Amino acid sequence: MSASREIFGTTPFDGAMAQRGYALNKMCFSFNNAANRAAFKADEEAYMRAYGLNDEQAKAIRGRDVLGLLAAGGNVYYLAKFAGILGLDVQDLGAAQTGMSKEAFKARLVAQNEQPETM
Amino acid sequence: MSASREIFGTTPFDGAMAQRGYALNKMCFSFNNAANRAAFKADEEAYMRAYGLNDEQAKAIRGRDVLGLLAAGGNVYYLAKFAGILGLDVQDLGAAQTGMSKEAFKARLVAQNEQPETM
Amino acid sequence: MARIIGALATSHIPAIGGAIAKGLEEDPYWKPFFDGFGPARDWIRREKPDVAIVFYNDHGLNFFLDKMPTFAVGAAPEYRNDDEGWGIPTLPPFKGAPDLSWAIINHLVDREFDIVTCQEMLVDHAFTLPIKLFWPEGGGPLTVPVCINTVQFPLPSAKRCVALGRAVGEAVAAWAGDKKVVMIGSGGLSHQLDGQRAGFINKPFDLKFMQSMIDEPEWAAQYSIHELVEKTGTQGIELLNWLAARAAAPGPVHKVHSNYHIPISNTAAGMLALEAA
Amino acid sequence: MARIIGALATSHIPAIGGAIAKGLEEDPYWKPFFDGFGPARDWIRREKPDVAIVFYNDHGLNFFLDKMPTFAVGAAPEYRNDDEGWGIPTLPPFKGAPDLSWAIINHLVDREFDIVTCQEMLVDHAFTLPIKLFWPEGGGPLTVPVCINTVQFPLPSAKRCVALGRAVGEAVAAWAGDKKVVMIGSGGLSHQLDGQRAGFINKPFDLKFMQSMIDEPEWAAQYSIHELVEKTGTQGIELLNWLAARAAAPGPVHKVHSNYHIPISNTAAGMLALEAA
Lengths: 119, 119, 277, 277
Ligand SMILES: [Fe+3]
Ligand SMILES: [Fe+3]
Fold this sequence. Notes:
The complex is a heterotetramer, with two copies of chain A and two copies of chain C. Chain A is mostly helical. Helix content of chain A is 62%, strand content 0%.
């Protein structure tokens, strides 16, 4: 990885991130189960403790801070299940991460039709 | 597999066997857990039904029939956990499968020291 | 002898499941997407493939980071869908083709692919949506899921995924079952959900990639994973499934139909139906 | 740079765990087995390896047939042992070496090994017993488990296991960690637990195999899995772990000590300690 040049705004979910985020991702993976989602909603703090989230992760969960969750090792495939609990879709996430309004983010997606057709 | 010549008294645990034995092996895998072992001992029939064993498998479990369990798709690595419940070791299994007494089976093992040292 | 009749590929955005459940196919947002499937569906109705090999990536339903396979092959009599956490409707089980699964597994291990075999396997939207989209009336094919890691780096290289697809194709072609088999690639095209680059789409790359699927099927395999992430986004890398599916339907193909639409959700949605020539 | 100091190998019969727990090392049944470890233990005390890469096979503790890997590599901070169903004592957790794990994982995927990565992983007697046997006073090394499927066919060929071992060795040799690393192979030698052939032992093959580990480390890789099962028994095939461990400590070695004893339980028990020359 280290040999590759950086890609703006992109953190490959590699071994370093996977180690950092294991507890957080495991918690989010548990949200496949409706009873677990309910338990989280009933007592977020207790649920986070049960999965051993560190302070950085717990803070990002409390703050619904998507970039913070990524920096704390969250993987978007698992974080999406947390977003589901909050009733957020991927455009809400996109808006939050790019600092745009959801409408502006959606408009930017549509505008990408104007890209050229050939490389 | 089919292209290979048969080995006496040996059935490779291949896809055909793995399909046949899935329920049986899954039940035996559950015996890693002490509570599951206790539940099996308390009501073998109910436990076998819960894992969906077929008639051949259930019959072989009831009869503690090692060769029957293998023929029904059991894999020895998982069956060993069933043997553990019964307090049987691998020499009991060896004796049962070869039709020998345990003492005779053990003696045969020791006698293999008399094999030549070179191929 | 089995016959490989072609390859299908589509994006697999979760929201598609909701749109189907709510009957939104004619809704202006969705119509340009769903309309793209018409000619492919006609072709499938005509050709009636018996079995589909579905190359897809799990999004954290069946696999977690405790046991994360590079390649996993299903070998179950049926595959259950389940709650993925967002309330998209759970679909009834999909029938497997275990005999074909094992023929593929035996060949792959013989060819030094170090696969995981799954005799029980939950399949997520990446598996279920292509079946729903290509067989909208139900009566779908028997299936063999082939799951490729696109979640946790290191990912298998595009070259390795092409080699996997090719070996799957060999196994199917050699399989004694007298069936018509279609390959399906699920995922992509360019999109990125995470990070400040969220919303990234690369239309010129996608269109070139779709054309390459027809006439230059290993074109994208020239790129490293890092380059493909750069060109297609962190989730655009799911195009690995398209590459594998195309490699599994080797030889020349002609295009039944293609469709490309920006955006569905955050994704450049692609659809491709190729018939073995 | 890490330095590979050699390779250790031993059989891993579950009953060994009971014998250690009960202090039966001097018991006439066990003494010829345990005595074989003396010179290897002396060598380890002298050389003090920091890390052990343990090639072993899971017997149905961490993996079941729902997700059965060909090759799995641990990447956890620690590895827990657990109840295997027979009441052998459960051991305290083993420390991992996650940085080295990821160095190995990255290299293996780059070299087209399609491994499973395990950030959480239970380790069974095949992993724990070699550590107990070679480090009887405790204070064992950091560990990286590498699990090879010997349970469900198709198994990886002996050639493929040698290639895996060689690639692991490359990754370790290139790893920046300034550590002494020892390779461990766990399993075999000839034995068969199942079927009418139960009790099968092949002394001449085992002795030739042990010699080949020293001076002809790919000798056994000439055989197919089927031939190896025929020659060594359905569980003798666990020698794949010895082959991989030896390939991971490449180059010439000299023998520190070896031991071979028939029988422990149903098994021809082998022990080998090799120092990189
Ligand atoms: Fe996806
Ligand atoms: Fe073993």
